Amino acid sequence: MAGDGITAGRQRSRANGGNGVAAGGLRVERVWTTAGVHPYDEVEWERRDVVMTNWRDGSINFEQRGVEYPTSWSVNAANIVTTKYFRGAVGTPEREWSLKQLIDRVVQTYRKAGEEYGYFATPADAETFDHELTWMLLHQVFSFNSPVWFNVGTKSPQQVSACFILSVDDSMDSILDWYKEEGLIFKGGSGSGVNLSRIRSSKELLSSGGTASGPVSFMRGADASAGTIKSGGATRRAAKMVILDVDHPDIEEFVSTKAREEDKIRALRDAGFDMDLGGADIVSVQYQNANNSVRVSDEFMRAYEAGTEFGLRGRLNGEVIETIDARKLFRGIAKAAWECADPGLQYDDTINDWHTNPETGRITASNPCSEYMSLDDSSCNLASLNLMKFLKADGGFETEKFVKSVEFIITAMDISICFADFPTEKIGVTTRAYRQLGIGYANLGALLMASGLPYDSDGGRNVAAAITSLMNGTAYRRSAELAGVVGAYEGYARNAEAHQRVMRKHAAANDEIRPQGPVATEIVREATKQWQSGNKLGAKQGWRNAQASVLAPTGTIGLMMDCDTTGIEPDLALVKFKKLVGGGSMQIVNQTVPRALRSLGYPEEQVEAIVEHISEHGNVVDAPGLKTEHYAVFDCAMGERSIAPIGHVRMMASVQPFISGAISKTVNMPETATVEEIEEIHYQGWKLGLKALAIYRDNCKVGQPLSAGKGSKATAATPVPAEVSQAVEKIVEKVIEYRPIRKRLPKKRSSETVSFSVAGAEGYLTASSYPDDGLGEVFLKMSKQGSTLAGVMDAFSVAISIGLQYGVPLETFVSKFTNMRFEPAGMTDDPDVRMASSVMDYIFRRLALDFLPYETRSELGIFTAKERTAQAQAEAAAEAAGLDLPGMAASAPVAIPTGSSTVTVAEAKASTTPAATAAPVSVGSSTELLELVTGHAADAPLCFTCGTKMRRAGSCYVCEGCGSTSGCS
């Protein structure tokens, strides 16, 4: 099914002989390109070898040699594009090997469709459009979302959308359709969101007379489906959003769902199960594959302010069947978010007040990252601009080029809907009828810093609001122009009044901006022109698109564009990890830092001194010659001077009025944040006009991967490794040549033998020690002498023993062989290791318990039964006494028997808090480099593909090593 505008465009194209010459088509002017010169001929190209390795063990994940890229593209960008977006089997002639092939595959498809559907006035306009789009992609001015690069121009279905919203009604057929549709979307690598509020509650009756199951029960099936599809071939967790309205009778159960599961995770962890993210036993808990959000109304928020009761309504007739204390429920939401980061909030009335299509239906849900909010059973394709490409050398902004670039991008995004395929027919029908687009940007944080503006300041928010308004105003103006060429979107006629009302709201919000400084003044002036001309034109001929903009995480595509910051986020930190051509890496200070210092008027010698200080310390505190009033310019998301949570909320609020959808961003809060502080952030999100808000309190989740930097606990006096203190752009690499010396055991040595049983398989473990009690020899017996198994175990024992005698630390063997899975596996007869995933898992857990000190074992998550019991009792005692265990002094003693000493609170926390401080000698991402510098571990997962620690990108995480994301961007 196609919209009226598409049909009209196709008819005009056919009337002109099908050559793409359409009456009233677009005239395209050159902005970035030169007539007669192809964009590829303006850049210098080189051949590179892309070899992706797991930096932890050196294994090769991917290899393609001789790929072609511009010399200006970073190693990281080239690696990610080659591994993620090049099509064809590696090693075959069909495999793409040049960036030219990738860009041509996409741009030529867009050009051909634009000509076919009547977008261009002449073939020359189509060619200019082709060249301009190519130039911008080649020079990293913008990027389409990942599905475009995956699918467009290939034999695969031409899916261009990354964001999907589904629907489910109060019937078993609809619920089962939801499972199926969600599975199809997950299989394609995208994410979806759904509101379950139409499903009757567990407090209502079925027509048969029984009691309904309620939406939370059906969430179990969907969660299991998502986990199964993920484990069936995907390299990341399924991305999904589940939403429930605040007036649903099951709202309290929904709010506490994931918090209860987090309690289960803690209990299982204390019993010795592997509950880290991706661990062997984490699959035993439920609801872990979805983000949960509560859809709150203005009525509920006013009841919260007044401290009054709020009615929960039945789904069948809308009548109030129960009342609750609004403040108690809101506090419960904040408490659950404090415990496990879920649920987030979506502000229903604010969302629908900015809805351009209310006559078609309300907005009830969002995509997993909460930036796309539109009709049920719809989708949105995204593209993001690299804002740093528009920053002039003198600190000005390329306003005219920005406007023209938005025109090109919106045109291309709309063309893609003409030929796109969709996972379900319902989604295809809605998307073609309403043509939702999601233009956005990345590198805002870098732009503000380079301009000498603090992220958390009126000046910073001023510029962000002005740029966002200009982007959205231009997008809608171009959409109105497209409506005059190929027709308004099909659903416009019935929603014309509402759409025009929302356009006036955007324009009125633009008028409220009070620009500070000449740059912001110029941008706001141009934005005002765009809103005025676009609204005037749209009132006459409508708009081509129901929605035009979102602010997405820009994870993988941000790396493709070599962006320092993603989406609306500030800089992660002032130091950065950079890969080098030919292998290796180096630590550098972000290039926005010296640019910011020059913008602030510092002379070159002071710039060098400050940069050197940052390279050594990771922050600007006490940097030589830097004025204290300029410290805020260099505040980041993490580190010594981190931006306060309310600063993030205020930035979101400043740009929200200029976005059709919403903003993908999680407000990080420190581990010491209280439930009351989270409650206040939630309240301020509503007061400041946000559409959605999610918070994450550091270390609130148990199911997190262990950090590679999880070593000895650091204090303020912990020395920084020499690699960190090297000068800016100096390679972090130190080669030490040595020859190991074998330390043999004496002829007479002490030893002990342990009999064991794993799932009924019996064996004996004999461990011999050096005179100083260090383990030096292991023997294993599990079968009759002369059998294959006995021979293998003998050989394995000799290999381990020789390794120990040559100085391989026992903890290295423990970390390698624990959690290894093979049969026999199951229950053991050892009270300290109740479950084992294999014989190897049991053996090395037993050796760790017998020969490693408590501090080392705590970092590996291995405890005796007494230690686990003592930890649980200590936590319970602290909670009963009203003490905040994570916030207690590290020196406060807790009675945990270790055989030699009393363990402090900091040590007792080690098994639950992946915050480690002694960083590894080498690092694999900017997040790990930051840990190395600051001595604090970041709350970020490890990449499922390459093992590198990921970094925050909006509501998701992105891997700097291979470009994988944890969400749908």
UniProtKB/TrEMBL annotation:
Top-rank taxon: Bacteria
Keyword Transcription: no
Region (Disordered) residue spans: 1-20
InterPro entries associated with the record: RdRp_reductase_class-2, RNR_2_N, RNR_lg_C, RNR_NrdJ/NrdZ, TSCPD_dom
Keyword vocabulary terms for this entry: Cobalamin, Cobalt, Disulfide bond, DNA synthesis, Nucleotide-binding, Oxidoreductase
Domain named Ribonucleotide reductase large subunit C-terminal: residues: 161-696
Residues in coiled coil: none
Enzyme Commission no: 1.17.4.1
Cofactors, names only: adenosylcob(III)alamin
Top-level EC class as recorded in UniProt: oxidoreductase
CDD domains, per database record: RNR_II_dimer (cd02888)
Domain (TSCPD): residue spans on this chain: 754-849
Family: Belongs to the ribonucleoside diphosphate reductase class-2 family.
Cited function: Catalyzes the reduction of ribonucleotides to deoxyribonucleotides. May function to provide a pool of deoxyribonucleotide precursors for DNA repair during oxygen limitation and/or for immediate growth after restoration of oxygen.
Name this polypeptide is given: Vitamin B12-dependent ribonucleotide reductase
